[in-house]
Design brief:
Rossmann fold, globular, developmental protein
Length: 334
């Protein structure tokens, strides 16, 4: 008998809900991890699920789940964890896990590799734009059948920011929870202080503009525990942390809605140079300033993607043999 596939296990898990807990409602949320290639997304997921196993490269879109007990004789909450591999090379797959049906219980976690600052802005920009575009489409679709749900989503996101916050008219939050995690802080902390300042201020602006929480992490157990707490809040509704650290000489930790443009300050560039950049929006200004310090390197995001058909961890004897025969026949015909 062949072993069950991951999809069959997931399907059985969902179907099982109907027979558990004598009709009590089971909490069910989804968390979607996107971000830098080899940035540590899998490591964070495994840590949150208490799985002591070495992380494997994520080639496309991967799924796993976790369960958490709420109390004695109460059904466990279920959290669906999705992870997009390949950095920015597989943007089309973003539309698979995000649907109008699960939008109200969905969260995004963007993991950015702080040790590669030249790749940071293009990775962040491409992933956030693609994700926001699809989320907006799903919002419109949901609004046609359930406008009340969309209204409630807007109210919930805006509730993170106080009604008298001076930046309410200057930001454009995601309508689903967004968390930005800067990974590999242990390498980043040894950067020149001026470079750290540019990265910290830029990420604070982007996170504040999109209504996101922002935090830095590394292999440090203390930092991983903080991240785990934030992910548990998204996945299982655990109480949200209200702590804050904006010191660029320490790992940043800023919960959504607690920062401000006045605290972040202007982009780190002389005032007489700002006009020369010809930026058409605040976000564009921060991008131009950032890329003056860290010019983008990657021009071809596909060139580093490994062919999964040749990866030994996915070996299938009969299928691989047929593939070899097909490839050889193509060579002969050509």
């Amino acid at each position: 008998m062949p072993s069950e596939t991951l999809w069959e296990i997931a399907k059985a898990e969902v179907e099982k809900r109907g027979s558990e807990g004598d009709g009590l409602e089971i909490g069910e949320k989804s968390v979607f991890f996107i971000g830098s290639k080899n940035g540590g997304k899998t490591t964070i997921i495994l840590r949150c699920l208490d799985r002591d196993e070495p992380p494997k490269p994520t080639l496309a879109l991967e799924y796993t789940y976790g369960r958490r007990a709420k109390g004695h004789n109460i059904p466990k909450d279920i959290a669906h964890f999705w992870e997009l591999g390949g950095g920015t090379s597989l943007l089309d797959l973003i539309s698979i896990p995000i649907t109008s049906d699960n939008l109200r219980t969905f969260s995004i976690v963007l993991v950015l590799d702080l040790s590669k600052p030249n790749d940071l802005w293009p990775t962040m920009e491409n992933l956030l734009q693609a994700t926001k575009s699809h989320v907006d489409k799903m919002i419109m679709k949901l609004g046609k059948t359930n406008s009340k749900a969309v209204s409630e989503m807007r109210q919930k996101i805006w509730s993170n920011m106080q009604k008298d916050h001076p930046d309410r008219e200057l930001v454009d939050p995601f309508l689903i929870p967004l968390v930005i995690i800067g990974s590999k802080y242990d390498i980043f902390q040894d950067f020149d202080s001026e470079k750290r300042k540019v990265i910290c201020k830029t990420l604070r602006f982007v996170a504040h503009y999109y209504g996101a929480s922002l935090m830095f992490t590394s292999k440090s157990e203390a930092l991983l525990l903080k991240v785990r707490g934030v992910i548990n809040q998204l996945a299982f509704g655990i109480d949200k942390s209200k702590s804050i650290c904006v010191d660029q000489n320490k790992p940043l930790f800023i919960t959504a809605g607690l920062d401000s443009l006045s605290q972040i300050g202007s982009p780190p560039i002389p005032d007489n140079d700002i006009g020369k950049l010809h930026a058409h929006s605040p976000m564009d200004l921060w991008k131009k300033v950032y890329e003056r310090v860290f010019p983008p390197k990657s021009t071809n995001t596909l060139k580093h993607i490994k062919d999964p058909a040749r990866d030994p961890q996915y070996a299938e004897g009969e299928v691989d043999e047929m593939r070899i025969q097909k490839d050889q026949s193509v060579i002969i015909l050509s």
